[in-house]
Amino acid sequence: MNCSPSSKGYFFVAISGAFFGLSGIFVESLSVYNISTPLMGFFRPFISFILFLLYLLFKNREYLKIDGKGLLFIALLGFVSQTLFNRFYFSTIEKTTITTAVVLLYTAPIFVIVMARILYKELLTLPKIVALIVSVSGCFLTATGGSLEVLKLNSTGLLFGLGAGFAFALLPIISKNLTKRYHYLTIACYTMGFGALFSLLFINPREILLIDYNAKVLGNLIALALFPNALAYLFYTIGMSYDIQSSKASIINTVEVPVAVFTSYIFFREDIFGVKLLGILLVILSVVMIEYGEQFLLSMQKREKSIL
Question: Which residues are in the EamA domain (predicted)?
Fold first, then answer.
C-alpha cells in the first residue's frame, strides 16, 4: 500500500511526538542526582548538537554548509524551540506543577492554527476544529485525570505556561519554510547548536563542572539528548519537509501526552486507567480525525453530487 507524501509527513510528526513523550523518564532519573532543570535545558541541545555534528562530519559534510540568511533563521528557531521553550516550560513547573505545565503547553495547537491561517492561509475546516477540541480535551484529561484540583494556577505561572505553548507553536511555523530550502539534518544540527549557545545565558557555567559524571548520569544525559530531543526534532523536521500543514502537525504531535503517561505507568507505576485512559483515546481519535476527517467529508460531498 502506497502512502501519500502528506501521510508520510504526518507519520514522522507522530513518531516525533512519541519521542518527545519519553523525556519524563530521563528528567526523573537525573533529578535524583540534583541536576537542575536549567542544566538539563542546556545539556539537551548541547549533546544533541555534538551527536549531529559528529554524524555529519563522518557521513556528509555538505550538509554543514549553509548561507547567512539560513543561519539567521535557524538561530531564531534554536532560540525559540530550545532555549525559550525550555526556560518557559521549566519556569512553569517551578511556579505551578508539572501537570499544570503540561496542560498549558498544549495550548500550542491553538496558537499554530491561528498563525498558520494568517501566515500560510491554511483553511480552518470543521474536521480541524473538532479534532483540535478533541485533542486539547484529551490532553487535559490525560494530564489531570479529569480533576481541576491538581492544577495550581497563578498569574506568573499562567504567563510562563502560555509562553511555553507559544514557543512550541513556533516550531512548525518557522521550520515549514526552512525545510523547503535546507536539508533536515542541516536544520536539526544548527538548531541544537544555537539552542545550546543561548541556553548558557540562563545557567551558571561553573555548575557544569560540579556535576558527578558517573555512568548513570552520563547515560541519562545522552539518552535525554538523543531520544526526546535529537530524534524528536529530527523526525519533526523530516515531517515538515513533506510540506504538510502546520496546524495538522501540531495536533498530531499531541500524541506526546499519552506516550508520557504510558511510560510513567511502565517505569514509575503511575495510574493510567479511568479518566486518563479516556483522555488517551481522545488524543488518538483526534489524530485519526485530522488525518481522515477531511477526506471523509470530501468523499461524502462527491457522493451527494453523484446522487443529484
Answer: 8-143, 156-290
Residue 192 is placed in which grid cell? Answer: 541544537
Spatial CA neighbour of 252 closest among 145, 99, 106:
106
The DSSP call for residue 148 is G
Residue 244 three-state SS: coil
Contact between 17 and 256 under an 8 Å Cβ cutoff? The reply is yes
> Over pLDDT 70: what percentage of the chain?
94
Reading the block at residue 150, the C-alpha cell is: 491538581
Q: Are 127 and 48 in contact (CB under 8 A)?
A: no
pLDDT tens-digit profile of 152-196? 878 898 999 999 999 999 999 999 999 999 999 999 999 999 999
Angle between helices 184-199 and 155-181 (to 10 degrees): 150
Q: Which amino acid is at 200?
A: L
Place of cell 477531511: 294
